[in-house]
Design a protein that fits this description.
Blueprint lengths: L11 E5 L4 H11 L3 E6 L32 E4 L5 H13 L4 E4 L6 H4 L3 H7 L4 E6 L11 H7 L20 H24 L3 E6 H8 L1 H8 L17 E5 L4 E5 L3 H8 L15 H6 L1 H12 L4 H10 L4 E3 L3 H5 L8 E5 L4 E5 L13 E3 L8 H9 L3 H9 L4
Parallel strand pairs: 1-2, 1-4, 2-3, 4-5, 5-6, 10-12
Antiparallel strand pairs: 7-8, 8-9, 10-11
Length: about 400
């Protein structure tokens, strides 16, 4: 008989996290059903709590913090103090923590008592994860745009004759989290087979470079690759085109699609012999895009999308974020995180085959130290007076 609980609901995660990359990962683990407890320093905690608008009219719960932190519990703990480190080690033991994660800089591991060897001595089968800018042997600070610049992403983003641009999302943060997720799942499988724990080190720089395998290999082979605005280096026409009431992105990926496009009413003048093959279209891409624009601006967005879909040419409206929120295909992938005061929606994983293992309702993003009493009471048997004393001493 199958359980109605998510497959991974028996696992617990303790995460010393801040910023974006690790909170994004641990929220995904929470959506898988794991118990995720985030650790923050007493006082102000994660700096992201104070970024963005104060949409809840509540200290430390600003808008930028909310999206990546639903479904978690939160405690405060001062790991700069010996007593704080001792409490952490007791939590590792008594909560039977399966996964410990941190995105602190490597130089702080031993000082905070969170290094793999120390935690492994407490829980031999623990899965330890560290996400850093450049790997455990390098202590440089790193933010997503800095890594986009260093890994070559910005060289590929923007117009050819313009400035390099940063990507519109923190994709290095998100990509490193995705690589970490796969590594954690592999480590869990290994532990299930032989009972062994693992140390996982994720370098955000190496993660970003791995996404660059095509342009880096092409460059090594002598094929120049650089930014091209909305066009594609190897296929045409591929770009954003205006309609009577908006914009669409059209991607013609082969000669058959091009031939079908030129047979449409309103596109007949594009049936030029020099455009018959993709190589000819690439050679004259600027002129071709001007002629495409002359055609597309005569259609409404809906009519153009309908027409191109009928002949199998990939096309999409350039949606606003509000359009995406109202996208019918995503409605089943939203989970609501409820609170006594308000609620927010979180996009879930789109992996349909494991949809039965997803958590459909998440707890609201936690206030700073919101679960101190619950966690310290459960794991260490501390009462309110003892917890209050720890708070007064600056330990929690």
């Amino acid at each position: 008989m199958m359980s109605d609980k998510p497959l991974l609901s028996n696992l617990s995660v303790l995460s010393l996290e801040q910023a974006t990359t690790l909170p994004f990962l641990t929220q995904r683990l929470a959506r898988d059903g794991m118990r995720v407890i985030r650790i923050e320093a007493p006082g102000r905690g994660d700096p992201n709590r104070y970024v963005g608008r104060n949409v809840l009219d509540e200290e430390g719960m600003n808008s930028y913090f909310l999206p990546n932190n639903s479904g978690k519990q939160a405690i405060t703990l001062n790991l700069a103090e010996v007593e704080g480190r001792s409490i952490l080690h007791q939590l590792i033991d008594r909560l039977r923590v399966d996964i410990f994660a941190t995105n602190n800089r490597p130089s702080s591991y031993q000082k905070l008592g969170i290094d793999y060897d120390t935690l492994k001595s407490i829980r031999p089968d623990i899965i330890w994860l560290g996400i850093t800018g450049f790997g455990p042997d390098y202590d440089e600070a790193a933010y997503d745009p800095v890594l986009q610049a260093r890994s070559g992403w910005m060289e590929l983003t923007g117009d050819l004759d313009g400035l390099p641009y940063v990507f519109g999302l923190p994709m290095v943060d998100l990509g490193a989290a995705e690589h970490a997720y796969g590594a954690v799942m592999k480590a869990l499988y290994r532990r299930a087979l032989n009972g062994e724990g693992s140390r996982i080190d994720i370098s955000m720089f190496h993660s970003a470079a791995q996404w660059m395998i095509n342009p880096l290999m092409l460059t090594a082979l002598g094929e120049p690759v650089t930014r091209r605005g909305n066009t594609h280096q190897f296929f045409a026409p591929v770009s954003v085109y205006p309609t009577r009431d908006g914009f669409v992105y059209i991607a013609v990926g082969n000669d058959r699609q091009w031939d079908a496009l030129t047979k449409l009413s309103g596109f007949e003048l594009l049936a030029d012999e020099k455009y018959q093959r993709n190589a000819g279209r690439i050679a004259a891409v600027a002129q071709l895009n001007d002629r495409m624009t002359d055609c597309t601006r005569n259609f409404t967005t809906v009519d153009l999308i309908t027409t191109l879909n009928q002949i199998g040419v990939p096309v999409a409206k350039v949606n606003t974020l509000n359009d995406v929120l109202n996208e019918p295909l995503l409605h089943a992938d939203f989970a609501r995180a409820k609170d006594s005061r308000t609620s927010i929606e979180v996009v879930l994983s789109p992996i349909a085959e494991v949809s039965a293992d997803r958590v459909s309702e998440l707890s609201f993003p936690p206030r700073l130290g919101e679960h101190n009493a619950v966690i310290y009471g459960e794991a260490l048997g501390l009462d309110q007076e003892q917890i209050h004393a720890l708070k007064n001493r600056g330990i929690i």
